[in-house]
Specification:
It is built from six helices and five strands; from the N terminus they run ααααααβββββ. It is an alpha+beta fold.
Amino acid sequence: MIDQEFLNTAFSPVNTVLSVLLILSVIYWLFTIITGLDIDVGLDADIDTDVNSPDGHVHVGDDASGWLQFLKFLNLDIVPITYFLTLSLLLTWLGSFYLESFFSFEIWISALMVIPIFFISILLTKLILKPLNPFFREINHKGEIPHDFLGRQGRMKSTIHGDKTGMLEVFVGKDPMILMVRSKDGEVINYGTAVYVVDEDREKRIYYVAEEIKF
């Protein structure tokens, strides 16, 4: 039987959100293990990332922004984001839980303490997962050569126009892959639009897409 004091601390005003997120993470992983499926969440966002596996990891180019360089520092170009976020959330929850268990701070102080705990947790997560980087690097490798994507049809996961970079979902066999793409002619291509890969920049690993192939 779960101790009442444990429940009171786990679902205190400070820890309730973390506890709910942790429960949702457990449900997600149970669903993934039982069904073998991964939940795809489409986001219409301005991010210059390339996710190359069903679990998702970040591809960071040489000209990437400071934010993406920070993601690379956390090894998110190797480690799947879902693994990283789940472990970071668990460590944050544990830190907040024990902080509230052993210290009697005001609620607002405890709430503010969650922020440094979270940043410490993501650094600890990087260290904990670092020995597994060779494993993640292997499972994230699809063995696909770049020209295999030319002519493929996919669906946009973000809106692009001009030089704006977005994400395109394509399927290689049964495997979903997300490519970093730009509009071939600079025209607006909205989220959810079906497009074709018509060109590529091999150095930057950027693909160019259009709503139809012009001969």
